[in-house]
Amino acid sequence: MDANGLAFLSAGIGAGLTMIGAAAGIGRLAASAMEGIARQPNAAGDIRGSMIIAAGLIEGATFFALIVTIVLATKS
Q1: CB of 65 within 8 A of CB of 18?
Q2: What are the two backbone dihedrals, phi and then psi, of residue 2, each rounded to the nearest 5 degrees?
Q3: How far is CA 9 from the centre of its chain?
Q4: Residues 22 and 58 sit within 8 Å (Cβ to Cβ)
Q5: Residues 3-47: pLDDT tens digits?
Q6: What's the pLDDT score for residue 56?
Q7: Do the Cβ atoms of 29 and 50 come closer than 8 Å?
Q8: Pick from 76, 66, 65, 60: which is nearest to 8 by CA?
């Protein structure tokens, strides 16, 4: 395998791990938010707002990690 193939393989593995981590993080976030809303229905609006902000931050970090893997793959 040449250097280009290895770079693409590494980028694919990095992107896959990034997506797995993001999915796990958002899944735990949503589960915790649903549990919090079930325990305190009056605070549903506040919990929902906080959940959306946290999900946006997770997505931002995921997007950044994917950009880094693409840049590193195309750099060689």
Answers
A1: yes
A2: -85, 180
A3: 20
A4: yes
A5: 788 888 888 898 999 999 999 999 999 999 999 999 999 999 999
A6: 94
A7: no
A8: 76
